[in-house]
DNA sequence: TCCAAATTTTGAATCTGTACAAATAATACC
DNA sequence: GGTATTATTTGTACAGATTCAAAATTTGGA
């Protein structure tokens, strides 16, 4: 699976102070694992699985139990500091919260690309469910990525 | 997990003949498991996991091996008779192919609701990735469902 | 500094989905 | 209809991802 975890979203990561404030403001404590996981995810950029984050942390020295990585990621998502990437069923991928964007998944090479959000589109997505409080919208585009589309081997 | 598999998509299911034709036209054979799985999924309506389908089949009498349900579901998806629901990472959910629609996931009760597609929105999603061949677009809305939004216990 | 509650840690259990190989059933063709 | 050819079905085994329970630590506030 070419998980192309490369395609990054700019939006500079938060400082430790900002990070701490965000956590506390949601009633969450500021802990080592949470800071390490956030910073690692931010440094890696793109879309990462819990295991990728754990591996990166281990590679950097300390090593954090897998369960702790899961816990920390959940806390970060709760605090709105990271997002679960909607890329279909399967392994859960996370990304540091930054500019709003959508995702494109290539059906041939499985590349996962970020797609900038057109405000106009994004706005119109919020008014379709009466009574509901829609807080976010993610769009999953599927098809052939530029590379695969250009390649003659592309299956129709 | 209140998986609200209830919200159904109209679009009446196909008859055995239509079903058979669709399968054969894709080079797939018409088999018992495929018909049972399709009919069960259609009768249940909404979004179902492989295990839910298996359980429903067992409850109805015959019982089909887990693996067979997975195989059948994959065949149905290949034949375009069913779709994998884009509802974020986790257990794969399937639904009988019907009217195009998107999904709303409640962050509090995990209800999964269908959202009618506005053609205008759907159309504008296809032109954002130069070079790519976009074949489909799914929108996942997240927030609080009407019920949870109305309830005072809703977390901000 | 001290305490109560929130988190982290460990290790194991679960839950999903997939891989394989043998047995079976669906088509194509005679 | 009868039969050869192959796609499918089955059953079992496995691998990976995520969750759980209980004990050990930490955090934030009194």
Helix and strand topology:
The structure is a homodimer of 156-residue chains.
Chain A: H1 16-25, H2 32-44, E1 48-49, H3 50-60, H4 66-78, E2 82-85, E3 93-96, E4 101-106, E5 112-116, H5 119-125, E6 133-144, H6 146-150
Parallel strand pairs in A: 4-6
Antiparallel strand pairs in A: 1-3, 2-3, 4-5
Chain A binds a DNA duplex (30 and 30 nucleotides) through residues 24, 28-34, 49-51, 64-68, 70-72, 75, 89-92.
Largest interface: A-B, 45 and 43 residues
CATH topology of chain A: Arc Repressor Mutant, subunit A
Share of residues in strands of chain A: 15-25%
Share of helical residues of chain A: 25-40%
From the 3D coordinates, which CATH architecture of chain A would you assign? Orthogonal Bundle
Shape of chain A: globular
Q: Low-confidence spans of chain A: pLDDT under 50, at least 5 residues?
A: 1-8
The CATH superfamily of chain A is identified as Winged helix-like DNA-binding domain superfamily/Winged helix DNA-binding domain
By CATH reckoning, the class of chain A would read Mainly Alpha
Number of helices of chain A: 6
Query: What structural category do the secondary elements of chain A indicate?
Result: alpha+beta
Q: Summarize the helix and strand pattern of chain A as letters.
A: HHEHHEEEEHEH
Question: Biggest sheet of chain A, strands in spatial order?
Answer: 1-3-2
Count of spatially separate domains of chain A: 1
What is the quaternary state of this protein?
Answer: homodimer
Average predicted local confidence, pLDDT of chain A: 84
Largest sheet of chain A: 3 strands, antiparallel
